[in-house]
Amino acid sequence: KPHAMGFGHGKYDLASAIPPSFDPKKAAHFFEQAGFKQIGPDGIRVNAEGQRLSFKITYGYTIWTPRIAYLKEQAKQAGLEFDLNLVDGSAAFKFILEKKHQLAFLNMGGGDIPAYKEYFHSSNANKPQTNNHTNYSTPELDQKIAAFKSEFDVEKKQKLSRDIQQDISDAYVIVPGYMVPYTRDAYWRWIKFPANPMTKKTGAMFNILGTSNFWIDEDLKKKTLEAYKKGASFEPVTIIDDRYKL
């Protein structure tokens, strides 16, 4: 992602934003200024009191473990330890909402117009059951968020949005993550869908909890299962739809 608040909001987004570079030497410099000047036998920094430079990363899905494990190995270059704290699914989000985490690895969805109050207003900071996961706020940011919510002039609202995103990016309270600008689905041959099955914002073709457009061919399903029982197979078919490729 280019910056802390993601992308996809058109002119509400800060177009000039770039993700901060990975710089272990620069990180080590700041860690030393914070008192973590010694390197332990395992390569992790410690301060004069023997406190390790270590933080737990809370996350909710096993599939994310290899990705966070990679971050763990990269962090060692600066003498920083990440302790992986896998909490299952919705329990992880509840854990984070209750502000029990040190660091959190998660993603949040939104609409065409960004939402800032729930994430960065002081009324939601340091309070459980709110989406201000970072507990970050400033009086100046409060003023901009209030102005953003009450502004009806689109150009002024977009300008305020970019200003807010700049403030959040400058605070470095969110580390931009990775982007997966595609969806990949596997399906049995009896699942059918129209010639144009997706829109630009479709997250998954066969999402039964969202807006999807597919159906089941019962006759083909019966024939396929009969063939399966007899040990017969069909050639796999791959369809690549790149109409909305970035």
What does it look like?
There is one protein chain. The protein is of the alpha/beta class. It is 31% helix and 9% strand. It has helices spanning 24-33, 65-75, 89-97, 117-120, 139-150, 154-171, 218-229, and strands spanning 38-39, 45-46, 54-59, 81-86, 103-104, 191-192, 215-216. The strands form 3 sheets. The chain has a 3-stranded parallel beta sheet with strand order 4-3-5, with helices on both faces. Strands 1-2 form a two-stranded antiparallel sheet. A two-stranded antiparallel sheet has the order 6-7. Strand 1 and strand 2 (45-46) form a beta hairpin. The chain is globular and about 70 Å long. The mean pLDDT is 91.
Question: How do the helices and strands line up, and which of them pair or pack?
Answer:
Blueprint: H1 24-33, E1 38-39, E2 45-46, E3 54-59, H2 65-75, E4 81-86, H3 89-97, E5 103-104, H4 117-120, H5 139-150, H6 154-171, E6 191-192, E7 215-216, H7 218-229
Parallel strand pairs: 3-4, 3-5
Antiparallel strand pairs: 1-2, 6-7
Helix pairs in contact: 5-6
Features:
alpha/beta; 7 strands; 246 residues; two-stranded antiparallel sheet; single chain; three-stranded parallel beta sheet
